[in-house]
Design brief:
The structure is a homodimer of 94-residue chains. Chain A is mainly α and 94 residues long. Chain A has four helices and no strands. In chain A, helix 1 crosses helix 3 and helix 2 packs antiparallel against helix 3. At the A-B interface, helix 1, helix 2, helix 3 and helix 4 of A face helix 1, helix 2, helix 3 and helix 4 of B.
Chain lengths: 94, 94
């Protein structure tokens, strides 16, 4: 699956509800999902992890990040190419 | 670019520094990038946006999310497939 496929999937399925909500509320929803990811990562860190739930939380954060990108007119593939591929990208750390 | 390509790119380039840092510190770095994305989105909302900077912040958040997925043993493509494609995925809202 390409990053562009994901952006299109999210656009096709959720554009109507996403655009009605607006960027500030969508960012709140996004951060709620980050909280759920934090919880799943913290459980893993404490030795009480659920790998299937963890994967689901990653999917949700990625889906909401994609929603925000769509509503902001940002092409994620192009953004990654410019930052991480052109000129070899940042070295050592991001 | 596929999501798997991105996961491999981040693994190839940053695995050594990422794995030395560990998941809790990596999560802190990730949230720092989310703060920068929030700032770029808020500027746009206030009519003072910089679309190029906004795209860069999206790239950084996606790169750090990918780092966290790598260090957690999560395949993002598989996670998206399971949550958003199998059975048609969640309808209406995510």
């Amino acid at each position: 699956m390409t990053i562009a496929d994901l952006q299109q999937l999210i656009r096709d399925r959720y554009h109507a509800t996403d655009s009605a909500r607006g960027a500030p509320a969508t960012f709140l929803w996004f951060v709620e999902e980050i909280g759920e990811l934090a919880h799943a990562l913290a459980r893993k860190q404490r030795g009480d992890g659920d790998q299937e739930n963890l994967a689901e939380e990653f999917a949700d954060v990625l889906a909401w990040l994609t929603t925000l990108a769509n509503s902001s007119g940002v092409d994620l593939t192009d953004a990654i190419r410019r930052k991480y591929l052109v000129g070899g990208g940042p070295a050592g750390t991001k």
